[in-house]
Write a structure and sequence with these properties.
nine-stranded mixed β-sheet, 1 helix, about 0% helix, globular
């Protein structure tokens, strides 16, 4: 298909999203989609050959979510041309003893992880709309838990609604594109990061935006919003290893979920659901005349 047709109307006209990369390739090159790391979410079920939604089902990752929100595979569904990640309140609190201290979970979100890894030289793109709740997250990549070489690329992260308990610096995060390259802390090193951000004209939960990252080299990552270049990050160390694509909706400790009046308990299911139109990965190849 030349276009992916989204199930939405704008002034009575069907909205279509091109299936080619939104950014221009360098001279003499072209972008070609990597099918096993791309998904239009046009079916009725998540493609389990590409993505793993069970939090502890990936051979290299087992994070079950930041308290108080637990990742649940059942919160990730596919329907009407979208991947849906629903968030909400658990029927009853769940206590996990997986980590150093017992963790109590009262809410739920969801995560998917790619079953295959990829390295630099490629372009990653996703079009989505955040849910209208205090939870957030986004589109990112992570390496295996290797001592001294645990790297993370956050293409974008945001929240749906600012909590009345939010940290002052986080009160603009419902209307933001925020990106990181993080050399994660391990027993062999301290954490160090480079980060930057920009502020779109509309909130992340009000309309769809397309977020992209060209991991051009181990020392240079270019970021895009709605097909337009916005900024570059230089990682704190060379990012030259294999990473796995992730998409998550999670809770943040700096935007706490209020005990009373939370959107997670009062919002409709529609407003508690993030919609992901697609995830696409592209490689550069020689263009033929």
């Amino acid at each position: 298909m030349i276009h992916k047709i989204c199930f939405a109307l704008f002034f009575g006209i069907l909205i279509s999203t091109p299936s080619w990369a939104q950014i221009e390739a360098p001279a003499g090159k072209k972008w070609v989609k990597i099918n096993h790391l791309s998904d239009e979410f046009d079916g009725k079920l998540l493609d389990t050959k590409k993505w793993i939604a069970e939090p502890e089902g990936h051979p290299d990752f087992g994070w079950i979510g930041r308290p108080p929100a637990l990742f649940k595979a059942s919160s990730v569904t596919v329907a009407n041309g979208f991947m849906n990640i629903e968030v909400g309140k658990l029927d009853s609190p769940f206590v996990s003893n997986k980590y150093a201290q017992p963790a109590t979970y009262e809410y739920y979100g969801g995560i998917i992880r790619a079953s295959q890894s990829i390295s630099y030289g490629n372009y990653f793109e996703s079009r989505f709309k955040m849910s209208k709740t205090e939870m957030g997250g986004g589109f990112w990549l992570m390496s295996k838990n290797n001592c001294g070489k645990k790297h993370e690329i956050d293409i974008t992260e945001s929240i749906g609604v600012v909590s009345p308990l939010a940290e002052e610096w986080g009160k603009k995060w419902d209307k933001i594109m925020h990106s990181n390259t993080i050399h994660r802390e391990t027993p062999c090193n301290k954490a160090v990061r480079s980060q930057t951000m920009m502020y779109p004209e509309t909130k992340n939960s009000d309309e769809f935006h397309t977020y992209g990252c060209w991991w051009k080299s181990p020392t240079e990552l270019l970021f895009y919003l709605d097909g337009k270049y916005v900024y570059t990050l230089k990682p704190p160390v060379d990012f030259d290893q294999e990473l796995f694509l992730h998409f998550s909706i999670e809770s943040y400790d700096w935007n706490p979920i209020p005990k009373e009046g939370s959107k997670l308990t009062s919002a409709t299911k529609e407003d508690r659901t993030a919609l992901i139109d697609y995830i696409r990965t592209y490689k550069l190849v020689e263009a033929k005349n």
